[in-house]
Every structure is written in C-alpha cells, then in structure tokens.
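I am still getting used to backbone structure tokens and would like to learn alongside you. To get us started, please write out a protein record for me. Start from the sequence, derive the backbone structure tokens from it, and show both lines together. Once you have written the record down, we can walk along the chain together:
***
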Amino acid sequence: MKKKMNYLVLLLTIIFMVGCTDVENVATTDKETDPQVAATENSDIKSEKEEAVAESVDDPEGEETSTAANEEEFPGYDILEVDGGDLSGSRQPNVVVDIGFGGREYWAFTNEYGQLVRAIADEITIQDDSTEPVTSSGRYYSDEAKVPGVERADLDEGHIIADSLGGVSNAYNITPQESTLNRHGDQAYMEKSIRDAGGATNLEAIITYPDTVTQIPSSYQYTYTLKGNEIVDTFDNVNPDEVNESLRLTGNKDSESESASSSINEGDLSSVDTNSNGQVTIAEAKAAGFTMPITSDHWLYQYMKDNDNDGIVGE
C-alpha cells in the first residue's frame, strides 16, 4: 500500500512540473511576440510620418504659395471671390474681384474706402445667349447689386462691364449711373460699338468720385482697343439731355438744329471741343447743336470717334 502511494505522489509531481513548463513556454512566447507587434506598429507610424514629410517637402508652403502668387499678380490687393449674382451693395477695401461671367477674367479693384475705382480685361468676350444661361431678357441675372445710390430714381444699377459684354452683376461691377447716360448716352454707345465689333481687347475703366464717402461716381474713362484702334472714351456721370437743356440746345426740330449749327463756322473746332483735347464726343457735338448721326462727309466727323468704322458717328 505504501509503495502505491509513493508512485501516486511521483506521478502527480511529474504532471505538475510539466504543467509549469508549458505555462512558462506560453509566457515566453507571448513576451517574444509583443516586441514584433510593437515593431510592426512602429514601422507603420514611421511610414505615415515619412509620407507626411515627403508631401511637406513637395509643397512646403501649401496654400501660402498660391497666396504669394496672387500677391505678385496684384500687389497690394487681396483677391476676393464673390458670387456674380450677389445683390449685396457693400464692398471690401483694397480687394480685386473677378467680375467676368463663366470663364472670362475681368478684374475689378477697390480703393481703401471700398469704392470701385478700376476694372481691366485683356479680352472682352461678348455674351452668347445661344450657349450661355441667360434670362428671357437676355441677362445673366434677374437683378443687380444694390450699391448705395441706386435707389435714386435718376440712377441706374450701371455695369462697368455690361452683362452683354460678359460682366456679372455684383457690387464689384455696379455703380450708380445716370439712367439716360446708361441707356442712351456715351456709355450705351460705347457698349454697342464693342458688341458690333465682336469684342475688344486691353480694356481699362477708371472710375472717379467727388469724395471718399459716396459710391456715386463723378466720371468714367474707358480705354480699349477696337479693330486695332485704341479708343479713349471719357464722360461725366450726368444726364446729357439736362446738360444740353441748360445750354438751350435740346431742341430736336430741324430749324433749331440748323440755327445752332449756323452759328458755328465750319471748321471752328474750339466752339465744339469744350475740353480742348482735339476730339469731339457725341455729347459735345449735341451740346453744340449738331444732330446725330454725323457722317463722314461732315467736317466734324474727322474729330470724332467712329468706333465701328462705318462712316457714321452717333447712329
């Protein structure tokens, strides 16, 4: 009996020892495996960091590179994106905004007072209502920005670059413009000339104000190239009919026109060219009593700009 007990104790001891050995092996295996997993995880993290560093090297300044390029193109101005149909009448100071519809690039500039003072376009591409989304009235937008001043009955929401010439209708392309000037005066005539020519190049508009507060311009000057000829159009933001009336030269009757014209000797440019710049605008010719159009056989024609070169001015 005692001998059997000894064998039983010995057997239990062996089983216990074998069990301890297995536990140690498992523990040892786990300890050996953990560093491998950790190494793999560390390797993944390192790879991600290396990729991030590589991207940083490729574009070290990120968006700042684009900003720097913009500042180089328009030094002193921030480039601002504004929806073409934004009806807000407010503008930010010292910014430049793309006022061209679609893919056109027309740029408008404000001064430190938020006044729209300049617009440029390398090429004017006229509106194409067969391929572009226009309203039934032939416009890109149903309304224009409410720049302070346009609420006056005598002022229009006047485009610096007309929507018929590819301009948008936000505050960076709109100024309060005398309605007769905008619809029937030099502004309208200039726009028609560009449309009839199929576009223009190297356009620059300079807008002048009487003070630093108002948003209503006092005058406009447009310089552009039409069919190879450089044109400079300068006009005040006034009603040309009222100017003519103040000079008592608004009559449309032939007798009144003939009387006014007869008081000016043929070739007497100084009586018509009121600003003495050697050129006669439509407004100046009308103010002097001449009726439109002026044809190529008229002595005044040589001093006027026939933008479409058809031998007729003011048609």
